[in-house]
């Protein structure tokens, strides 16, 4: 199964919405689902948390636009 997430908030942006998406992708991976994410390219005036990127499965495709 495949899933596409469209989210403004995605690592390295560090908000509660980001954590929710990362955890959702992580648990879908454990169920055998391949995830892709469509998010923003330019991060302006946001709180950054680089540690969240370590929790994202390597098989996740991230498209920044």
Write the layout of secondary structure elements.
Blueprint: E1 2-6, H1 16-30, E2 34-39, E3 61-64
Parallel strand pairs: 1-2, 2-3
Structural commentary:
23% of the residues lie in helices and 23% in strands. It is an alpha/beta fold and 65 residues long. It has a 3-stranded parallel β-sheet, covered by helices on one side. Helix 1 (16-30) links the parallel strand 1 and strand 2 (34-39). The mean pLDDT is 92.
Question: What's the short story on this structure?
Answer:
The chain is an alpha/beta fold. Helices cover 23% and strands 23% of the residues.
Radius of gyration: 11 Å
Structural class given helices, strands, pairing?
Answer: alpha/beta
Termini, distance in Å? 24 Å
Percent in strands: 15-25%
Strand order of the largest sheet: 1-2-3
Percent of residues in helical segments? 10-25%
How many β-strand runs?
3
Order of helices and strands: EHEE
In terms of per-residue confidence, which ranges show pLDDT below 50 for 5 or more consecutive residues? none
